[in-house]
Design brief:
heterodimer, A: 467 residues, Penicillin-binding protein 2a (Domain 2), Beta-lactamase, six-stranded mixed beta sheet, B: 412 residues, mainly alpha, three-stranded antiparallel beta sheet, globular
Chain lengths: 467, 412
Amino acid sequence: MGINRAIDRLWVAFALFFLALALRDVWIQTIAAPAIANNPHNPRWLLVARNRGTIVARDGTVLAESTPRGRVYPYGTVFSHAVGYASARYGTSGLERAFDAELAAPMASLDPREQLAGLLAGGRRAEPHGQEVITTLDPATQNTLFSALSQYPRAAGVVLDPRSGDVLALASVPAFDPEHIDTEFSSLLSDPATPLLDRATDGLYPPGSTFKIFTAAAALDSGTVVPSDQFVDNGALQVGSFVVEDNEGEATGVEDLTGAFALSSNVDFAQIALKLGTARWFEYADRFALARSMEFTLPTAIDHLPARNSVTPSILAQLAFGQADLAVTPLRMALVVSTIAAGGVEPRPTLVRGVRAATGYVARVPPGSLATPIGADTASEVRNLMIAVVRRGTGTAAALANVQVAGKTGTATNPAGRSHAWFVAFAPADAPRVAVAIVVENAGYGGVVAAPIARRVLGTALERYRS
Amino acid sequence: MLAAIAIAAFTLSLAPKGSLGSRWLLIALAGASVFWVWRQPAGERRDNVLPALAVLLSALGLVTIARLSVDLAHRQVLWLGLSLALVIALGETLDRFRRYATYKYIWVLASIVLFVLLALFGQEVNGAKLWIRIGPVQYEPVELIKLFIVFFMAAYLAETGDVIAAAKPWSLRANARYLGPLFLGWGASTAILVLQHDLGMAALLLGTFAAMLYVATRRIDLIVAGGAIFAAVALWAVHHYPYVATRVAVWRNPFADPLGHGYQTLQGLFALAGGGLFGAGYGLGHPSYIPDAPTDYILAAWAEDFGALGACVLLAAFALVVRRSFLAAERQPDLYAKLLLCGLAATLAFQVCIIVGGVLGAFPLTGITLPFFSYGGSSLVANFLLVSLVWAVGAERRHVARAIEQTERGTT
């Protein structure tokens, strides 16, 4: 064999070697690339975090945005539970979690067609950014709600538009600063006051007398009672082995339905529930979609209802005023009160109006209502009861100067200590735009503690939110 | 050459402003390149594609270094200038290189001197003494030793190749007599490199040695034997050197230890995966996450910006240099020149294969430079010397060419 043949063979060997390497490179950079790029250790994910989308309020105010120094939350603790946190170490919560897919910046595209288009367009492609999430939240209302709740150690509140289900404000106290979640997470986790818990959507409370809205609505809608019916409250009522009493042992005497509701007579409502009966109580619980998922943006606790076969007359009597084996979220009570405000239609709550991508704005499809548990006439009658609460009953502290407020107090006894103070309301009573539910844990009377908070929040919301 | 400079100038114009130093310096480099090629002896036909490709590859490498580190890019420009100055200054010496064939043991001596200097004055980096520092300049003598060994082997095999080729594989005495010194010299340098943990260079020398031996003798049994020895040594090293075992483990599964031993390999893979087919675009990838991106991992940096297509262009350019060198070898009338050119081409080809294959995970990674492309003065100077030699030695002398043509006409 000639020496040049040997050189030729050597060249062929090298040529094959180079070809194999080229093929391997093409394979790695195209076919294998997506799987490699998606590895969590790829530092290019940090760039993705840097380009995470912005979360804004309904008026465009920035609630969360990514900057070169990290994720910034201009309102600090105020929006903590609604907006949530986004941490490389501890993951996401709130809207940051619910819309993570939209907020997350996509990795640079590996699609050859997109790459080529980008290169032809001057070779300079913008780093892909995450989409902007436009929420239904109103910063002023949220500020008022949060600062009012923050007077107490543990409290929660929800403000929404009863017609659309748009959540205008949603707060839970104690809160956390999402900007410092990385350093504070472990202490937040071990804090007995559970600051990471979103009490507004994930906290379950006995609703107390605010639940008389449900009892009244069910009784009126089913024809069990009419507004002119008279009820006698002598301060106590023996039902089976249980004695129903009003708060502080007071007796309201003889009252019609409006009076019984306005003065929040447990004895009168126990009688109404007994007349309504277990079957119809559960029928209306079902119509109100209680204990059913409401498919909200944030995780919500499922309401706790007593087992149907365990409901004795004494339990039914207590269910009338939201005690016994019943627990609901503040968000649920906001929906119940919204049902009255919206003429019998229970809205489906929503926290997001739309998402803005580089390709344009995409509005969320309005979620539609959750249920239509009662007729418009019933809703109107219950509304009159609620107006009486604020005019002359237990909820006068919620009254606004120029606007008629309709509301209901609640003072829920619970095993943890003092009663939970509740107030649910909507305004203006004749053309409701804003509904609110407030609960302050272990703080005493709803009319004293929660009603003033509702008044402040309604005041701000009505001023801000006129549409 | 002018085409190469035009492409180089275009690519260099992409580099971030100020990252390459003065514009005039680059123009001077372009001028030097042209002068280098222009100043060739009359009466010869040289393959000017070779120096053109060297300049082009250096420019592409410079552009890649510039987007990784402005500081290194500035220094690489100076090294490029030094390389060009050296090949221009050594021009006549290189033209007459054939004559040095007789002094073949000079190269062995020079290698030994360099090794001794390294052992005495070497700077220790990461547990290996690979650098000699002279004032502000650091040099890696291995890059020169690699050339010296090729010089020596070409000269030695030119004399003994036919005898070795004729020896029967089972004739111990004949084989030992002529192969012995060769194996001894090569074995010693390889051993030193292995002891210095410079596995890439050791593999490179082994490959070059095998390629030259094959061309000189066409004896497959020697290549097979060499391969077997290499396999045995490699296996032994895996079991006795933890760092070799680590390299092998990382190669087998780079995802097993993503933050420790597998970190660099994985970062390289992430960069490659970030590039796709067409690449992110110049300066738009993020290869700075890769440790040693400007040196060992420059391919990954290039391929993230310019994609698989860019990597293929790069490999094709190297393949073209190798092909052209082999063609020049085939045109040479004498065995020494043939062997010298083959050895130099094989060195270059193996060096590209070893580092590219390592980065692509085709085999365990050993850190050596990608010729012309990587940051590193030692490598750049040595490879410019290499290509310059191939260009000069591979020249066709007109009268020789005529003589060959006549012979061919006569025989056919």
